[in-house]
Design goal:
This is Helix-turn-helix transcriptional regulator. Keywords: ATP-binding, Nucleotide-binding. Pfam families: AAA_16 (PF13191), GerE (PF00196). The radius of gyration is 34 Å and the shape is flat. It has five domains: about 5-205, Rossmann fold, CATH 3.40.50.300; about 210-250; about 450-675, Alpha Horseshoe (Serine Threonine Protein Phosphatase 5, Tetratricopeptide repeat); about 685-895, Serine Threonine Protein Phosphatase 5, Tetratricopeptide repeat (Alpha Horseshoe); about 915-965, Arc Repressor Mutant, subunit A, CATH 1.10.10. It starts with a helix and ends in a 10-residue tail after the last helix. Strands 2-3-4-1-5 form a five-stranded parallel sheet, sandwiched between helices. The chain has 47 helices and eight strands. By secondary structure, it is mostly helical.
């Protein structure tokens, strides 16, 4: 999973050592990041290959602990081989009495002359080296020395001796250590610098999981038993540390809703680092923990209340022991968020309140500076100064909105709502609770939390007396209707709410009435009532112009433009959308501007103008970000449509990035984006990623979003590429049944994929001579093509006519249907290829591959070869491994080379020229040393090239890499005879 690259590097080193090139790897990483697990996996692989594994562990017993302890443990399994070597025999006995004291002790302390100690130590080192050489002559040896940061001086000297004499032994030494424990004066530091200059020694840094891998790890731990929100929370709190994630998951499983508490075992591990500090440093760390994970130096000094020099000394000790790190010259940061959390929760209650009050007092003197309001709100809340916390929370919410950070604004608003009733009326700001709730609803909607937007809007509606404040009541109902309409499946409810709002302003024309009419026009158009929608849009225009409400006017113009598009007036629609966009920008109505940009991009996409759509979307996404509306209703639509366009046009790297929210959003929003991203995961052959997304999707309620249809496509594509067409057909059959008789336009694509699966099922049944199965699937195929055709003619496309995407999928459906009933039809596949030429490069490449198969069946090899090469070229450019492999298999069966005369090998070559040369020599049985001699490069460089080759192929051994290269046609087999 997330450690594949590091494990492949270690296995490559092991393979190289087994071939006679001794090596050492120094594996560095924080505590709990996975060093021991990595060593265990390598040891398991080594045993499976017949190697001898010797493992020793250092203990935290200081420089005066037992010398050579890890070496004694490692050599324990071969202790009987020590009999012929007196130095080794003494190693397993009383070392001090036998003249083998720790080299770190003085001659006076041991009672033995220094020269004699050195001679005895050298004899021991030679004996260990000779024993290892003897063992490697029989079979490869993996020597694992764990926790080298705790090694005594003698063990460090022995390691240095052994690693400096690595030559042609079949030996790999793996030494692990904690980089975070190596403070400036740690004795291992100079040794590492010395060792890394040796040609046979490499360092491998094991970093924490990134965000995506951390979520995958937690999801795997839970075996799909946790919802997405819990998975994301545990992954983020762990900061990518595997041990921390495991402990947090265990606590969550044991405590349920109390899963935010730190487990005792984890607290003990974390606080052990603090207890190594002196009293002054511990106090400084406690003080810093109240300030948060990151604390400015000036703020820390202002609240410390101690002499600056004493604080410097305390902080320097905390930094040297990697408890705190200095990001910049003026900021201290806890190395890990959970370390800060453990220290903070270890404070006494009174101590915590007192320190928060000190921070609040310091911040109160600087109110108005950027970021101060948010910090003041937090510290005032924790020190029970609620009036100050309320005012600061509202100021922080406004500041976050101005900076385009709606999620943070929502947090501040929710804190204000939490303490609103606890603050005396005379000390509250001059605003009502209903206004605060309405604002929270809007901000929740812009931060990707549609469900909370609805909840806050409903609370606002309940707070306003409609009889006493009809316009305010209409206003909050409009907000609720918009929140409901933004959530798929709740359009009817939105219509009912907006009707109630209309009744309240029926005889009160003005800006609020204009907005209510504009919102009603939008909802009615979505409900399929275009005539009424147009009437309310025109009413909104009239009232907006009279009240100078430019935002409502622009909103109504967008709805009228959409109605023009449905009527087939494309040019008029685009002109209206641009006019609405300009007006919204001019009057400062960003949410309306974003809606206009999205609607224009959608218009361009659905008419096949992909290049224009991509440009419009890029501008729209940028504008949404400027206004903090990235996760608003139409900000999300912009991002989702951008991802769809990037997928279609072949910009898969950008689409991959856009599919990762990078921000805490609701499970509905997360599911929408990641499911679209799963299309790329399948297309690129990252099947486990797609499995994970589908599994997490099934644990959440996405039934009322577009996601189930996309999930059906993902699941079907995944099953087809895995060679399970029967499963794909089952999934698509079920999904098509759920769409009902509403002529959902997505049904054309679903039917085409179902026909592709049916064609594979029919082919298998024909090869087995199962006539009943052939007849059954042929009948189902007839039903599927009828559905696709009927949807194309009876459906109601948003544009009024079936667009190029719908026509392309219908063409593929026709071609797949013919394949079910017998030989593939080249003419139909030609039409499908041409239909996807509007810009859907991947789908066109898939059709080219199928067209090539049809041409081969018709015995047109030259044309088939051309289309196969084009399909393979596109697949290579996209990184679409399953499609490339399929095209390669077809070419191999037909004895067609995928190379063209113009570009001989570069079309599909995964390797650099040097990597290809190395792989070719390895295929001939050369060792790393021999390869290096032939190519005039070092053995270490050869090992690096092999590691990269195996990573590209997904291989774990040299022989496996060669076999996979032959199988994929990436390496020519020697001509026999």
């Amino acid at each position: 999973m997330a450690r594949g690259r590091e494990l492949r590097a270690l296995r490559a080193a092991l393979t190289s050592a087994a071939g006679g090139t001794a090596a050492a790897v120094l594996l560095s990483g924080d505590a709990g990041v996975g060093k021991t697990r990595m060593a265990e996996e390598l040891a398991e692989a080594a045993r499976a290959d017949g190697a001898l594994v010797l493992t020793g562990r250092c203990l935290d017993s200081g420089e005066t602990g037992l010398p050579y302890l890890p070496v004694v443990e490692a050599l324990g399994p071969v202790r009987e081989r020590a009999g012929s070597r007196p130095a080794l025999a003494r190693l397993f006995g009383d070392r001090v009495e036998l003249g083998l004291p720790d080299a770190g002790l003085s001659a006076a302390a041991t009672g033995a002359p220094r020269v004699e100690q050195d001679i005895n130590q050298l004899q021991l080192f030679d004996a260990v080296h000779a024993l290892l050489a003897e063992l490697t002559a029989e079979r490869p040896v993996l020597l694992v020395l764990e926790d080298l940061h705790w090694a005594d001086a003698s063990t460090r000297r022995l390691v240095s001796f052994l690693l400096s004499r690595l030559r042609a032994q079949r030996l790999l030494v793996l030494a692990t250590y904690r980089g975070e424990d190596l403070h400036r004066r740690h004795p291992l530091r100079p040794l590492l610098a010395e060792l890394l200059r040796l040609p046979a020694v490499e360092r491998l840094d094991l970093t924490p999981f990134n965000r995506a891998d951390a979520r995958s790890f937690v999801s795997a731990l839970s075996e799909g038993g946790l919802g997405d929100a819990a998975v994301r929370d545990l992954a983020e709190r762990s900061d990518g540390n595997a041990f921390f994630a495991e402990e947090l998951f265990a606590a969550y499983s044991d405590c349920g809703d109390r899963g935010d508490a730190l487990p005792a075992t984890l607290v003990d591990v974390l606080l052990a680092r603090i207890e190594r500090l002196g009293p002054a440093a511990q106090n400084a760390v406690r003080l810093a923990s109240v300030g948060g994970r990151r604390v400015p130096d000036a703020r820390l000094r202002a609240v410390a209340g101690i002499d600056g020099a004493d604080l410097d000394t305390a902080l320097r000790e905390a930094v040297q022991h990697n408890v705190l790190v200095t990001e910049h010259t003026d900021v201290y940061t806890f190395r890990h968020a959970l370390l800060r959390e453990a220290v903070y929760h270890d404070l006494l209650p009174g101590e915590r309140v007192r320190l928060h009050a000190a921070y609040a007092e310091e911040l109160g003197a600087r109110i108005g500076e950027p970021g101060v309001a948010a910090a003041l709100a937090h510290h005032s809340m924790e020190s029970h100064a609620l009036p100050v916390a309320l005012r600061a929370s509202l100021e922080a919410a406004s500041e976050a909105e101005r900076l385009g950070a709606p999620a943070e604004s929502l947090e501040h608003l929710e804190r204000a709502l939490k303490i609103w009733d606890a603050v005396p009326v005379e000390q509250r700001p001059d605003r009502s609770n209903a206004r605060l709730l309405e604002r929270a609803s809007f901000v929740a909607g812009t931060s990707g939390e549609p469900e909370r937007a609805i909840a806050y809007a409903k609370a606002a509606v309940a707070c306003v007396d409609a009889a006493a404040q009809p316009e305010q009541a209409a206003h909050v109902r409009r907000r609720l209707a918009q929140a409901l309409y933004a959530t798929d499946g709740r359009e009817e409810e939105a219509g009912q709410v907006i009707e109630a709002a209309l009744e309240l302003v029926a005889d009160r024309p003005g800006a609020i009435a204009a907005w209510v009419h504009a919102a009603n026009a939008t909802i009615l158009r979505g409900l399929g009532r275009p005539v009424e929608s147009a009437r309310h849009a025109r009413a909104a225009l009239a009232q907006a112009k009279a009240a100078d409400a430019g935002g409502a006017e622009a909103d109504a113009l967008i709805t009228l433009a959409m109605l023009d598009e449905t009527a087939g007036q494309v040019a008029a629609a685009r002109e209206g959308l641009r006019a609405a966009m300009d007006l919204a920008t001019r009057v400062g109505a960003p949410t309306v501007e974003i809606r206009a940009r999205f609607t224009l991009a959608l218009n361009q996409y659905e008419h096949g103008d992909l290049a224009e759509a991509v440009h419009t979307l890029a501008d729209g996404v940028a504008r949404a970000a400027e206004h903090g509306l990235t996760w608003s209703t139409y900000g999300l639509e912009l991002r989702a449509l951008s991802l769809v366009c990037q997928y279609a046009s072949g910009d898969w790297d950008a689409a991959d990035a856009a599919a990762e929210p990078g921000h805490r959003v609701s499970h509905v929003v997360w599911g929408r984006l990641t499911m679209l991203g799963a299309l790329i995961s399948v297309g690129r052959g990252r099947f486990p990623e797609a499995d994970r997304v589908l599994a997490e999707f099934r644990t959440e309620d996405h039934r009322t979003t577009p996601t189930p249809l996309v999930a059906a496509v993902v699941a079907a594509e995944l099953a087809l590429w895995r060679g399970r067409p029967d499963r794909a057909l089952d999934q698509l059959r079920s999904c098509l049944a759920d769409t009902g008789s509403g002529w959902e336009m997505m049904a054309i694509r679903l039917a085409a994929l179902a026909l592709a699966a049916a064609a594979e099922v029919a082919h298998t049944a024909t090869s087995r001579r199962d006539e009943d199965a052939v007849t059954s699937v042929a009948a189902e195929a007839d039903t599927l093509i009828a559905l696709a055709r009927d949807t194309a003619t009876k459906g109601a496309p948003r544009t009024g006519d079936l667009g190029p995407e719908g026509r392309a999928w219908l063409a593929r459906a026709e071609a797949e249907h013919a394949r079910v009933h017998g030989a593939p039809d080249p003419a139909l596949w030609h039409r499908a290829v041409e239909a996807f030429a509007y810009g859907a490069v991947y789908e066109q490449a898939v059709c080219r591959w199928r067209l090539a198969e049809a041409l081969l069946h018709a015995d047109d090899r030259p044309a088939a070869a051309d289309h196969l090469r084009q399909a393979a070229t596109t697949a290579t450019a996209l990184g679409a491994k399953p499609l490339h492999d399929a095209a390669t298999r077809t070419a191999r069966r037909a004895r067609i080379s995928l190379d063209s005369d113009a570009t001989p090998r570069e079309r599909v070559d995964l390797f650099t020229p040097r990597e290809r040369a190395v792989l070719a020599l390895v295929a001939k049985g050369r060792t790393n040393r021999q390869v290096g001699e032939d190519l005039f490069i070092s053995e270490k460089t050869v090992s690096v090239h092999l590691s990269r080759i195996m990573a590209k192929l997904g291989a774990t051994r040299r022989a496996e890499a060669v076999a996979m290269a032959y199988d994929r046609g990436l390496l020519e087999k020697p001509i026999e005879g």
